Amino acid sequence: MNKSLITVGTAVCRLIGQFTNKNIHINKNSLPPVPAMVKFAKMHSIETMLYAGLKKSGFTDDELGDLQEQAELLSFCQIKNDAFAARLSANFSNAGIEHMIIKGIEFSKYYPPKLLRTSTDIDFYISGKDAEKVARGLEERGFTRIEDDCTVIALAKKPCSHIEIHTGFNAATKKQSRFYADLLKNAQYKNNSRRYFSDENNLLFALLHLYKHFSKSGAGVRMLLDIYLIQKKCIFDRESIQKKTADLGINKFFNSVCEISDYLFEGKSLDNRMLPALEFFFSSGTFGTNDAYLTINAAKYNGKTSKIKNYLKSEAGFSNENIKNKYPLAKKFPVLLPYFHIHRVVSGFIHKGKSVGRVITDSKVVTSDNAAKQLIEVMELMGIS
After folding, report:
1. Domain segments of the chain: what residues?
2. How far is CA 197 from CA 2, 107, 146, 258, 332, in A?
3. Cα–Cα distance, 306 to 297 (Å, whole number)
4. Is the dihedral of CA 353, 283, 382, 32 positive or negative?
5. Cα–Cα distance for residue pair 164/121, rounded to 1 Å
6. What integer is the mean pLDDT of 254-260?
């Protein structure tokens, strides 16, 4: 057990918890060293929240080094992202393209204040029939396509614009695929061509997103905070939430996440049995680590796993369902599925050459039985089979 990591991570979360819980009182002199907390915050992409929490606790900018500059830069980039997302959304609406803004920008409305929730990209959900048209329009504006997967097209433009166009999501289980089947149909409200999730579906979406990352390679504090703050700001029918999480196969996971979040952001008690899961959250960084990914997959394949096999299974999304989602013609004419599978492989190598190259370069990995066993125990503890 990494006691130092747990001490630092818990302190950072309690600093953030001040904004939603008046019962949390921070003793400035009992906190870990500022550099250690800054390092942890960078791992989890929560620098602006740490800065605000430290200022609220009486720290001066002189005591915080360059954290003030980092936080202000991240907030400035977020303002630009928010404005650009709004302009793009208006353009999509004018063109009659149904869409949703999802993930970071959408979750930020639950934060006090909104700018504390920063993200490096803008995520849209757009139906498969319009995704390619939107991507080509962005390329005409100077964006470069850096990823073209079955369920996402990612584009970037210097210095800091990054857009992801999602046409679907690779769910962790078949039950969860039903929720993802068509996000636009699950949207409760409509404004021109832009649709919105209800608060309840935002919560379920955030939970499934966390579940996928956690079970695949780990996930960090920011995703926990998203789920915690959605619940903190909204009034839910708890019976309905429990029923829906049970139907999605994430009820135990949801309750475990709530228990850990209440400990981190409210100072409530935590069963000692949950400490390994807490440590895994803290060590995973924002979206998990490659080491965890390899260890989890090694556990699935008795200690040895092919990176190429796992890339094709879980990263690239080569199921017929994903291929049909990306290529509407494949849905209309299933006989063309083999052609589109080949197109998907070629496209993946063109747009994801570096990541695919890393997969092929190191095609085998052997991990210790002990490490795999520990991660399996964490997964079972969280309700992940």
Report:
1. 3-127+167-300+367-381
2. 39, 11, 28, 21, 28
3. 9
4. negative
5. 7
6. 97
